[in-house]
Amino acid sequence: MEHMIEKLTELESNVRTYSRAFPVVFCKARGAEIYSVDGRRYIDFLAGAGALNYGHNHPALKESIIEYFLGDNIVHSLDLWTAAKYAYLDTFDRLILKARGLDYKVHLTGPTGTNAVEAAIRLARKIKKRSTIVSFTNGFHGITMGSLALTGNAKFRSAAGLPSVGNAFMPFDNYFGKGVDTLRYFKKCLSDCSSGLDYPAAVIVEVVQGEGGINVASPAWLQELETVCRDQDILLIIDDIQAGCGRTGRFFSFEHAGVVPDLVTNSKSLSGFGLPFSQVLIRPEHDQWEAGEYNGTFRGNNAAMITGAKALEYFWSDDAFADEVRRKGEIVREGFLGLIDLLRYRQVEAEERGLGLMRGIDVQSGALATKITAEAFRQGLIIETSGHSGQVIKCLCPLVTTGDQIEEAMQILRSSIDNVLG
Amino acid sequence: MEHMIEKLTELESNVRTYSRAFPVVFCKARGAEIYSVDGRRYIDFLAGAGALNYGHNHPALKESIIEYFLGDNIVHSLDLWTAAKYAYLDTFDRLILKARGLDYKVHLTGPTGTNAVEAAIRLARKIKKRSTIVSFTNGFHGITMGSLALTGNAKFRSAAGLPSVGNAFMPFDNYFGKGVDTLRYFKKCLSDCSSGLDYPAAVIVEVVQGEGGINVASPAWLQELETVCRDQDILLIIDDIQAGCGRTGRFFSFEHAGVVPDLVTNSKSLSGFGLPFSQVLIRPEHDQWEAGEYNGTFRGNNAAMITGAKALEYFWSDDAFADEVRRKGEIVREGFLGLIDLLRYRQVEAEERGLGLMRGIDVQSGALATKITAEAFRQGLIIETSGHSGQVIKCLCPLVTTGDQIEEAMQILRSSIDNVLG
Amino acid sequence: MEHMIEKLTELESNVRTYSRAFPVVFCKARGAEIYSVDGRRYIDFLAGAGALNYGHNHPALKESIIEYFLGDNIVHSLDLWTAAKYAYLDTFDRLILKARGLDYKVHLTGPTGTNAVEAAIRLARKIKKRSTIVSFTNGFHGITMGSLALTGNAKFRSAAGLPSVGNAFMPFDNYFGKGVDTLRYFKKCLSDCSSGLDYPAAVIVEVVQGEGGINVASPAWLQELETVCRDQDILLIIDDIQAGCGRTGRFFSFEHAGVVPDLVTNSKSLSGFGLPFSQVLIRPEHDQWEAGEYNGTFRGNNAAMITGAKALEYFWSDDAFADEVRRKGEIVREGFLGLIDLLRYRQVEAEERGLGLMRGIDVQSGALATKITAEAFRQGLIIETSGHSGQVIKCLCPLVTTGDQIEEAMQILRSSIDNVLG
Amino acid sequence: MEHMIEKLTELESNVRTYSRAFPVVFCKARGAEIYSVDGRRYIDFLAGAGALNYGHNHPALKESIIEYFLGDNIVHSLDLWTAAKYAYLDTFDRLILKARGLDYKVHLTGPTGTNAVEAAIRLARKIKKRSTIVSFTNGFHGITMGSLALTGNAKFRSAAGLPSVGNAFMPFDNYFGKGVDTLRYFKKCLSDCSSGLDYPAAVIVEVVQGEGGINVASPAWLQELETVCRDQDILLIIDDIQAGCGRTGRFFSFEHAGVVPDLVTNSKSLSGFGLPFSQVLIRPEHDQWEAGEYNGTFRGNNAAMITGAKALEYFWSDDAFADEVRRKGEIVREGFLGLIDLLRYRQVEAEERGLGLMRGIDVQSGALATKITAEAFRQGLIIETSGHSGQVIKCLCPLVTTGDQIEEAMQILRSSIDNVLG
Questions:
Q1: ipTM confidence
Q2: Residue A194 sits at the chain C interface (C-beta within 8 Å)
Q3: For a tag site, which of A384, B397, D115, D217 has the least CB within 10 Å?
């Protein structure tokens, strides 16, 4: 492995990220477990930062894609109609949309999250003929120039070499702590024509901010935001890229609040198998695209549509899977509350946050969080940090992680905290 | 098929493009042939607009990816080090870079072309601490906001809802016809501090403009452009997304001119199998990224790296394949010259252009080009148009298209011209 | 007069503003009184929106400028050194700066407020090598593109046809009512690197927002803002264009709070005589301009420097004038409080606000304020409205307005309220 | 004078420009002559860079303004209607517009050139609902952010700290030397929807580029530009700030070509007396401003309107003055041709350019031009350089300069060239 690491370091750009925190070479993986080339086993609570909700190499999905390839079915075809696209769209419409009483048209964008976000905000600007999109503190929506303007992270923003255009930030729920109504500022700015807020085309928001540090918008706050948007002729875009596909214990994260966005962005686990795939859901009355007005070579990845359709059938034909996710979310939550007791015993103030299996422990210090996750890695658990200063230990374990694996991970975290603070 | 079309039309956003010109549902494909669900066979000269240089479902690539999946190897892992990444980078370095005396570090960006372009221009801005990137008339570099500023197409630009920032356009080679030195304008603007051109960080250029209408930059023009960049402290970025991976009869399109760009963007056929995959090649002295300064969920698609490495071994271990591409390019060229005779006989002025198997016939009229390609589709050939008004019939057939298939395509085009103009 | 009005209406662009609310042709004026061509006398509480602090045609200033012209002294000379410039700068330094223990270099910009603001923010960007300038809700800083980005007013912003670049708005003091600490949001955004606030080069703020509706920043708020700027390496720019030159009862409005800005913009009454004139005051360590980096034909209006120097000598050689302004401010305040009693008696909730002779009555309704000021005009008082919806009756009477004139104006307002609400 | 210089250097910002090339303190001036405080006489061929076409302190203008002030007429009144405004607009309409068969409404903007330019381009954007304004290489239109985007000069542009938005540069007439049709590029970009040129709202152009180095657009080129604009639904804005008010031997510089712009900007000598004053002329059908959509404190400077109206009556009641300017222009031209012979004799290649009394000698080297003008100043002639590298000695002498003064200036230039090159 040493030789491989040397070579990889030499050949790959300095921009590489995760191989710095987890500097081994991986090869095999299944479910919530991943193996390095020297045979070491790790529990994977990073899981593609939300791209592997169904775990690595799920057998049913794997079978579907291999069968598809064996049959010389179409892998790439720009945005031509294919049997795979038909299967995916029909399944998605049936099992996800109709089952929830939702009505959306699907824009199969380039297969990355930022492509979907750029498509959504462009459509919003076109519909409303206004240029401003409102996003929220600690939001993350991607880093191509259009999405970056909506992303709070200063590291990416300052690396862009250009100032932002067409954006405005508002405070997310609880940004000033419990009890401060952050939508008040937004409403005041909208009602005051000298507030400096250019009247927005749309609001884009995450129900749970993943990169931002597992900040959960309350149902009441989301409902109020929806009301503001409806009343003020502003589109509501929910970026469900990280929190979607069951992560929070519902297929869409916004189901908890019962809001119905005008546009929704999906990606990450949408293919189910870790393949690049993205889409924008568009309320039919908003599908004001002209033909070909937004394009890209890899929109509508057929392989991803095959595994995506299979994942929907396998996991979303009834409510059992979602129920299970919420149940496991409770288990992780209780585990984390135990860790918080431990941290407090060690004089570290900490907070548990999350929804479903998107959970985090805010230890208030990026340095401490890094020490704990580094120690956890040494002990065989891959788990990352998030938040503005990396102060939140962030669990995005596969939704198929077993109870034993969760228990093992909790023990590693407990031991890591002990080792770091002891 | 009718039911499928009805359902697809209902479920998919109006933004869909290719299913309008080719309104059937496809299912199977191999090499240069593709089949609709009603069993009809088509020759595919669209071929993913350059994403399928090795044809559909190449057996060697298919085998490699199936084997990889069967072994429970890692499909998705953000940008962690994997055995697949090692295999890809090592193979790319050995068979492509070292074999050409090139020295680049590889930035595995999000898997779409526009992601790679955004990464390249951001790095250029960071290196040079200047905001302007120069691109060229009829250039196409993607449509996320950063790339869109460099893309000439008015349809995409006007749909953006925001004015461009940080860009400047210069005339491409032969923009005013043969004999006008278009770099003179660029050089004059650089030398005149009141020209209005903000001193650029970089130039981004395609050796053959694909979307722009198969416009080929001459080696002399490219060499002069490289000299200007070197002399004036400007980075040279070659966007080889559509013209790269052997399309022009060399792996990199810029090999014809012998220039050595500072940064190169690759995508489209880089995976060999039609899977989303992109990279930026960075001269080592320019690899000034800080860790994690540019990110994205699907950077370094492992499945694509497996087929990508296999494609390099299969096609690029020696010069035979490239030689064959250039030979077939001559065949297509001669076929096109025959079509031009036919067009002229029908009183239509036309021009043949191209490099290797990236070729087009400019029939001067988008309406005529559309009629011809529509008729060709009726006769079983999928071929698209490009250029500012869609006036160029554009051949991007798989590089593995057989002589018989080329002959058949030419006959269809001949017959289509006859039918349209007869 | 009817013929003149007809002709003026025909010849002047529709953009004209004040001639709509006050549709007569004026000719003569002295002190706080102004006459229409048909001989009608008006009390002028508009007074050039702060440009006529010393009243119309003050005899001492008039004499100085006539004498200057009679002597064939230099009227225009770009930014060459002149005896007039020497006299002005020396007087300003002596009577205003040194007398207050202040140390600034003077940048004589183009003679409009927005020119000064553009110069100040450009210098701030240059010094800090950052692009963002923070301004505040309801702030007004001019409407050329650079200043407009910092101006809250939606009417001007939306007329620009371009989105803003390089700006961020924060809530002004009391924006959410008394008791809400609005700087908390700014401080939180600065401390949170994912807040979306690009780290600013500078803050620009008015001590009393004139166009914004006579909103007064408290000394404590300004001191806290100064502390934030000092601690966070951000420049503090005070835009004293409307509130400066004695309007608030001190020469600079920020004297009340004891803060010392890095940059100050002055204009409006700086010439004392209503002539166009502006400047930026720059702390010596920040005077990082290169020669000629900011220019303009009319910077350093010699005629304005003559009257400007004279005004300083006449009004600012000791504290008597400022004391008098504060005393009159109290008289206006008491008059306004009486009007508020009257309004409340008529069931209209209203609030009095202001500092020195920059005062307003917020009647909560733009329609009502317009009715009252229209009736006042009918009765011989010129007074305008301001605020986001024009809901504030705004007194910017000349500082030399006599007690009798103030009394007359109050009676007109009282009678106007009675007539409108009776 | 030494003490004054010391004090001025201490008090004034480093940004000061002209006092560096001409480092004396001036006090009196009349016609084309200006005096320093130590009694030295200079011939002034700088003349406010075009702001003093009628010379310093013209007796008739001086008398009119003194009389106005003595009568306690209104000096400042925002944009209220005044007798002065009536007199100015009526005179301008009668003597300038109607006399030339022109029909424009007048927008009295803030009194600087850049204010007028910002108003013109904002109106153009509003009318056409497009954001791009096309300007030309070496153009100068002011340096507030909106105008700066249209100004070629790199020194100002790079000092802005923000990239430009909403602009595009095209090559000015003769930019590539005689015989190259520079409008071809513009026309090609307009006709090619993938050229990268966002379809413009307007073109803004100077008939003679003053700051750009006395570059004269030929009548044919301007007529062709007008045709392009008319045919393509683009507004034509002529920025006549430096070349207008008789400078070229016609009141408007565009009269030579017979074009009729949609919008015209005037400033500089518009007041006749060196007072700040600007306007935009708007074809009636384009006067689509809403009331108050563009504002500013000093729009419609009454004092400037008095001298402006007087100047129109005095100089523009018949053709005699314009004839005289053209005659003197010929004298300067011949003098300059003599200087060119002298320069060539000294082995310096040089070119004479200009229209009317806006003339220059291009000596190809900024260093040489600076040496010559510095020596000329030593000998009593104030004359500046312009052009991208300051390579053009630029004559903008008052239009009232006498034959003797011109002769004296020519002798000084001749002697300066001898001394510098001898």
A1: 0.97
A2: yes
A3: A384
